[in-house]
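Usage

Read records sequentially. Each one opens with the input sequence:
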Amino acid sequence: MVSTENSIYISDKAKLKVIQLMNEAGIGADTSYFLRVGVVGGGCSGLSYKLDFDNEIKPMDQVFEDKGVKIVTDLKSFLYLVNTELDFSDGLNGKGFYFDNPNASRSCGCGDSFAV
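and closes with the structure output:
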C-alpha cells in the first residue's frame, strides 16, 4: 500500500467484516456509529490495539474515511497508527482483525500488541 496522506486505512475484507458485525449488533443502519480504533498500554510488546463501535466524537478525535467506513481515533493513538491498515484474516493460522502498522518496530506472535 502506497500512502498519499496520513490516514488510517481498511482492507476490503475488514470492511465486509465491520459491516457484518455492525448489522449483527443492530447498528448497521445507524449512520451515527463508526469504528473507533485506538492504542492502549499493555500486551506482551508494550502497546495493544483496541477496536470498538462508537457514536460519540470527542474533542481531540481524528476522523478518517476509507472505502466508505468512518474510522475515528484519538490524537495520541493516531501518532502510533498513522498510515496503518486494518485487515481481517479468516485463515487457519488465526482468525480476526489485525493491524498492518508501518510504525511498529516489532509485534508479538498473536498480533495484538506491538512496540515502536
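Summary fields computed downstream for this record:
- DSSP finds two helices and nine strands in the chain.
- Residues 8-115 form a domain with the Hypothetical Protein Aq_1857; Chain: A; fold (CATH 2.60.300.12).
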